[in-house]
Fold this sequence. Notes:
By secondary structure, this protein is of the alpha/beta class. Among the domains are: 130-265; 280-398; 461-527, no CATH class. The longest helix is centred in the middle third of the chain and has 17 residues, at 247-263.
Amino acid sequence: MKQEIKNCQNCKEDFVIEPEDFNFYTRMKVPPPTFCRECRLIRRGAVRNVSSLHHNICKLCEKKIVSVYSTESNFIVYCRECFISDKWDPEEYAQEYDFSRPFFVQYIEFLKKVPTLALMNMGVCINTEYTQFIFDSKNAYLSYSTTDSEDIYYSQNVDKSRNVFDSYIVRNADSIYENVNCANNYNVFYAQFSRNCIDSWFIYDCVNCSNCILSYNLRNKQYCILNVQYTKEEFEKIKKDITTDSFKEISKMKNHFNELVENKAIHKYAEIFSVQNSTGDRIDNLSNCKYCFDTYDSENVSYSNRVGHAKDCMDTWGSLNGELIYETHGAGTRSYNLKFGLMSGLYQDCEFVHLCTNVKNIFICASLKNKEYYIFNKKYTKDEYFLLVEKIKKHMDDMPYVDHKGCVYKYGEFYPIELSSFAYNETVAMDYFPLTKEEALNNGYRWHEKEPNRYSITYKKNTIPDNLNELEKNKMIKEVFECENLDTNKHGCTNAFKIIEVEYDFYKKHKLPLPRLCPNCRYYERFAKIPPLKLWHRKCMKNGCNNEFETGYASDRPEIIYCEKCYQQEIY
Length: 572
């Protein structure tokens, strides 16, 4: 088929559907989308609650739990032990499809009826009660989207790492603090876009470096400060005079480092490594992928992010080892031919499924395990199943759901935002595409009001000690500290925070000062350093170069952006 230009029914902007996109839709047996790429992304993000945790009650054992579902959400929430137990049967909630009502109205009612998991932590998870989207990990606290890792605190998007604090997008790391978009680092603090580095502080875009401080764009270097080469003896002498456990001194270094990154360092137009015929940012080892972010070891993937080891996928957010995945969120791990899935994995030939595991040929089902030929959690014969599925799809076209803005949802569309399980400001859509409360409500989206502090602040922000040595651990872990953003009403600020014992020990061991911001505000500081899930067409900023490219750095950003060729010539 030829390229087509369509008008998004949500934002009313034109968007392009390429011939290879049409080939994928044909293969998946779905109609082309009526929403543009960005509106589809927002729609998926609006069902992804990563870090908004609430106190709740397990409806089965009645113990107090932490959950991504607030009590006002009206979902039946089970703790992990009850959810995976044989104390209840998801088939007890089976129902008939009602052809007199729109599909999506029935589906959201069904999801509220079937018990769901308090936190989406899968595999073998140990000591992860205050986390979300954790897979096969141990000892994680206020950390999210983490796989195969141990001792992870206040961090997000962490894979195969240990002893990680306050970091964002890291892989194969150990003993790091405040790392942003880094891999294979050891004993590295305040690093951005750096790989294979050890024993360094405040580095940007450094590779295979050790013992470097306040440096940028270095390759295979050691004993550098402000990009100046020193002998080992000279380096150690200067380092000895640097006070890292003082908040005032670290703040000065952080401000200096930020100025270097913005005004001196050269930024490659995108973080792209070992790719063929692929576009996006923060991508590694890809082939024939387009508009992908935070994606690695994949081929033929489009309009997706946080994806690994995937093949032939489109419009997915959070999937590992999947093939033929379309319009999913947090689903598709070790799955084949999945459409419109939410959470969990081991799906085959499924559509509109939520939190199911090891299932095949199921349609609009929730919380099932090891099942085949089910619709609304009701068992059918093979022939009955396929006949009814086609009949329901036709009904979705004949009686579509129409949202608050007048957008029409026929078969082939993902879940309407106004029917999301979460309020808009509880989801990552708010991070990437922020709205005011008024804007969200006018769009028909729910809004969650900020919950009051559960603890009384014992340390005001202007009285927190400059040095960790000024407070004993036994006293420290009992205090409640005031966040510096308390009076700014910033999104996500919890106003107050505590220091846990393992955190104190880490600061003490590595001579780090106490933070002054709550974990959420610290996250948003890191989040701001990563270009958004969007590409802009720009030219190389090196004088005399006319190369053009797609980049995540908007034209109004202050960084120096080079094309691949100029970047390589300058750095290597």
